[in-house]
Amino acid sequence: MTKKLPLRQCVGCGEMKSKKEMMRVLKSENEPICLDMTGKKNGRGAYLCKSMTCLQKARKNKGLERSFKMSIPAEVYDALEKEFADGSTE
Fold first, then answer.
1. Cα–Cα distance for residue pair 13/32, rounded to 1 Å
2. Rounded to the nearest 5°, which phi and psi values hold at 26?
3. What is the DSSP string of 33-64?
4. Type and span of the H or E element at 16
5. Using one digit for the tens of pLDDT, what is the confidence trace for 71-89?
6. Pick from 4, 9, 34, 5: which is nearest to 22 by CA?
7. Is residue 71 packed enough to be buried (19+ CB in 10 Å), middle (13-18) or exposed (0-12)?
8. Who wins on pLDDT, 33 or 8?
9. pTM
10. CA 55 to CA 81: how far, in whole Å?
11. Separation of alpha carbons 21 and 18, rounded Å
12. How far is the CA of 8 from the CAs of 11, 31, 33, 39, in angstroms?
């Protein structure tokens, strides 16, 4: 029997992919919004494909705002883009 892979929806493009193929954006009570590379930190998570275009789509269509039910300042997106560019494997 094959183990069922948990699928997550990208808040940028809307595609369903396995957790391993995506990166998690985390909002926790005591930390600002950040990338959770481990995928194990506590808090509310939203998933994005590992591509800059999905991050930009999420910014444009307010995907993270919907996931976290709050407004997200532009500097958070800028920080995510910088963090993403630094940690990107592509």
1. 24
2. -115, 140
3. SEEESSS-SSSEEEEEESSHHHHHHHHHTTHH
4. strand 16-18
5. 988 888 898 888 878 765 4
6. 9
7. exposed
8. 8
9. 0.83
10. 7
11. 6
12. 9, 23, 19, 12
| Total H helices, total E strands in the chain | 3, 5
Own/partner contacts of 69-75, CB < 8 Å, gap of 24 or more, are 70/27, 72/33
Q: Which two tokens stand for residue 68?
A: 């976290």
* Tokens read off for 50: 């590992």
pLDDT tens-digit readout, 36-70: 888 888 999 999 998 899 999 999 999 999 999 99
Measure the CA–CA gap between 71 and 86, rounded to whole angstroms: 25
> What does the alpha-carbon distance between residue 48 and residue 58 come to, in Å, rounded to a whole number?
8
